[in-house]
């Protein structure tokens, strides 16, 4: 028998789902303003942090490596991403954001108001508590 979810837990889960949906909706719209799909923007975001092999990008996005290859191809044509050999293993190609790619992603990220606006209504203590709760939920406690 499946355990029954209590009403408070159900409400919290529904609210988290609403936040995630609204975030993705705004993220995809912001990506579109930079002539990017949501997937292209997510790849550019990952590569803005560090160069990585296609397989790892696919793992991060939970998709097939062949999908990532197409995304990288389109970003490379625009000069936002480049392929380079891995210094540690020359058989592996890394995808890396170019300076233009990092700049584009930073502009995209700066244009996201969804999280910034509602979070501004919370005090510093409330934002800190929310951050700590989310970290705990995700097992990222320090």
UniProtKB/TrEMBL annotation:
UniProt cross-references to SMART domains, sorted A to Z: HTH_MARR
Pfam families linked to this entry: MarR_2
The record's annotation in PROSITE patterns points to: HTH_MARR_1 (PS01117), HTH_MARR_2 (PS50995)
> Which keywords does the record carry?
DNA-binding, Transcription, Transcription regulation
Q: Which InterPro entries match?
A: HTH_MarR-typ, MarR/SlyA-like, Tscrpt_reg_MarR-type_CS, WH-like_DNA-bd_sf, WH_DNA-bd_sf
Signal sequence extent: none
Tell me the ranges covered by the HTH marR-type domain, including all copies: 9-139
Highest rank taxon of the organism:
Bacteria
PANTHER family xref list: MARR FAMILY REGULATORY PROTEIN (PTHR33164:SF99), TRANSCRIPTIONAL REGULATOR, MARR FAMILY (PTHR33164)
Query: Which protein are we looking at?
Result: MarR family transcriptional regulator
Phylogenetic placement of the source organism: Bacteria, Bacillati, Actinomycetota, Actinomycetes, Kitasatosporales
């Amino acid at each position: 028998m499946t355990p029954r979810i209590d009403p408070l837990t159900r409400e919290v889960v529904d609210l988290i789902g609403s936040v995630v949906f609204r975030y993705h909706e705004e993220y995809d719209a912001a990506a579109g303003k930079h002539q990017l799909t949501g997937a292209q923007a997510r790849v550019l975001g990952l590569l803005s942090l560090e160069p990585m092999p296609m397989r790892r990008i696919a793992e991060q996005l939970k998709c097939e490596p062949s999908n990532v290859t197409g995304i990288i191809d389109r970003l490379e044509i625009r000069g936002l991403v480049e392929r380079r050999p891995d210094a540690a293993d020359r058989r592996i190609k890394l995808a890396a954001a170019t300076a233009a790619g990092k700049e584009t992603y930073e502009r995209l990220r700066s244009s996201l108001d969804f999280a910034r606006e509602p979070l501004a209504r919370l005090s510093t203590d409330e934002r800190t508590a929310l951050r700590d709760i989310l970290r705990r939920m995700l097992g990222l406690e320090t």
